UniProtKB/TrEMBL annotation:
Homodimer. It is an enzyme of class 6 (ligase). It comes from Pontibacter diazotrophicus. Pathway: Purine metabolism; GMP biosynthesis; GMP from XMP (L-Gln route): step 1/1. This is GMP synthase [glutamine-hydrolyzing]. Pfam families: GATase, GMP_synt_C, NAD_synthase. Catalyzes the synthesis of GMP from XMP. Coiled coil: none annotated. The gene is guaA. The keyword Nucleotide-binding applies. Transmembrane segments: none annotated. It comes from the Bacteria.
């Protein structure tokens, strides 16, 4: 495997994604919290950073642990750090360089640059530049404004590159990364979804033996894939619980429960709608809604888990980005910490935890799900927030409002599907606003709710843009909603990006 040491760059996860796309397994660690090297580690990549090696307090580590011992690739700050520690001169660029540049000199006899072409576009994003390098560093590529675009330490497999091979704007970035991880480090390209399933099922069998495991299904991709993996390993000893919190999409509880049963899962559907509605009664504040829903879920799940005799494990669909976040350079975030306060925990939380997806990125979870033959309706579904429709009904929640929003949402989502637009959209849904407006239907004056439609394009939900859905499509959906859903007489479309707005309205 490859280790990626994170110095705080926004692109670190992208490096990992690219390496995984080469079917090579890799792990990210913060530069100041790296586990000791084992034989499995075939090479190390140092990431970029928002910091400068010229800063008094710049992030650094003992390079002698890595350099010369195994292949090392420094990217941007990583390259500057290695050059700096070898006596190179790193200075602020006269112009900060962001964006495209072309390789104008290339020693492609070098193994790192094999098959790269002169004139190839590389993506730059740096404030500092490596001005001078000492004798023991050989410059192997340049662009018109950056002489030291790539270098090699003589006599060892240590490389530095000033550009970012991990971003898709670098034409041959993937070739360069392949040269490093496959040809220089000698990694096998055997990290595939099939291998993952095979290996993980065997590990789970060993770890869980005859123990019983409980898992909360949500209808989403992560919990579904986690369940199917564990099911493959231990069959009926996996007890799944799927809670109807009364805040799901129209008919979702029944259809998803059916799919789960169809997949052979041992799943219990729990109708807890009334408990959730009671807990939410009169609450208008979004954060208080989230708390009430979270608390109620824990109560319901705890009650159910107690009915499984002798259960030993709690399975969770935690994925790798959550793990990276909890290990990150800045330490665990405040919300992640709150899970760790022992004392007062419900009983199921005292179980041992098993998280079979905690090394995977989201797209890999989908690949694994497809390998496990999970239905496409589950694998390909849009993300849906845990608190469900509660944060799409502004102000207080009543069963009547849920009913209205479910119908609106259903028309919107099924129209997206039948128009072939569903897979082009990252997430879509409808919002029931507390605003009422005047309308006219037949000869009657109406005074009813305004609903908003939201459809966004995104990669990870961190940033998003609104989808340019065709006007005619929006016109049809709007007509359909107003004609069919009692209580709604106006439809608007949300054209805000994130930032500065967010995807959900609450
Ligand atoms: P925002 O609204 O923050 O949403 O732009 C980003 C992504 O997170 C989802 N989301 C949530 N998911 N519990 C969840 O499990 C929540 O409280 C929550 N709030 C937002 C949202 O649907 C989007 O995918």
């Amino acid at each position: 495997k490859i280790l990626i040491l994170d110095f705080g760059s926004q692109y670190t996860q992208l490096i990992a994604r690219r390496v995984r796309e080469l079917n090579v397994y890799c792990e990210i660690y913060p530069f100041n919290n790296v586990p000791p090297l084992t034989e499995e580690v075939k090479g190390v990549i140092f990431s970029g950073s928002p910091c400068s090696v010229r800063d008094e307090e710049h992030p650094t580590l003992d390079l002698s642990q890595y350099l010369g011992k195994q292949p090392v690739l420094g990217v941007c700050y990583g390259a500057q750090l290695i050059a700096h520690e070898h006596g190179g001169d790193v200075t602020p660029s006269t112009i900060r360089e962001y964006g495209r540049a072309r390789l104008s000199e290339l020693h492609n006899a070098d193994r790192l640059l094999k098959e790269l072409t002169l004139g190839s576009v590389v993506w730059m994003s740096h404030g500092d530049t490596i001005k001078e390098v000492p004798e023991n560093i050989e410059v192997i590529a340049s662009t018109p404004s950056v002489r030291v675009a790539a270098y090699k330490l003589r006599g060892q497999e240590t490389y530095g590159i000033q550009f970012h091979p991990e971003v898709t704007h670098s034409d041959e970035g993937k070739t360069l990364l392949r040269n490093f991880v496959v040809h220089i480090c000698g990694c096998q390209q055997d990290w595939t979804a099939e291998q993952f399933v095979e290996g993980t099922v065997a590990q789970l069998q060993e770890k869980l033996g005859n123990d019983k495991v409980v898992l909360g299904l949500s209808g989403g991709v992560d919990s579904s894939v986690a369940a199917m993996l564990i099911h493959q390993a231990i069959g009926k000893n996996l007890y799944c619980i799927f809670v109807d919190n009364g805040l799901l999409r129209k008919d979702e509880f029944e259809t998803v429960l059916d799919s789960y049963k169809h997949m052979g899962l041992n799943v219990k559907g729990v109708d807890a709608k009334d408990r959730f509605y009671a807990a939410l009664e009169g609450i208008r504040d979004p954060e208080l809604k989230r708390k009430a829903i979270g608390r109620t879920f824990i109560e319901v799940f705890d009650d159910e888990a107690h009915q499984i005799e002798d259960v030993k494990w709690l399975a969770q669909g935690t994925i790798y980005p959550d793990v990276i976040e909890s290990l990150s350079v800045n330490g665990p975030s405040a919300t992640i910490k709150s899970h760790h306060n022992v004392g007062g925990l419900p009983d199921f939380m005292k179980l041992q935890v098993v998280e079979p997806l905690n090394t995977l990125f989201k797209d890999e979870v989908r690949l694994v799900g497809r390998t496990l033959k999970i239905e496409e309706t589950i694998i390909g579904r849009h993300p849906f927030p845990g608190p469900g429709l509660a944060i799409r009904i502004l102000s207080d929640i009543t069963p009547q409002k849920v009913h209205i929003l479910q119908q609106v949402d259903h028309i919107f989502i099924s129209s997206l599907k039948s128009a072939g637009l569903y897979d082009d959209v990252w997430q879509a849904g409808a919002i029931l606003t507390p605003v009422q407006s005047v309308g006219v239907m037949g000869d009657e004056r109406t005074y009813e709710h305004v609903v908003a439609l939201r459809a966004v394009a995104s990669v990870d939900g961190m940033t998003a843009d609104w989808c340019r859905l065709p006007y005619d499509f929006l016109a049809d959906v709007s007509n359909d909603i107003i004609n069919k859903v009692k209580g709604v007489n106006r439809v608007v479309y949300d054209i805000s990006s994130k930032p500065p707005a967010t995807i959900e309205w609450e």
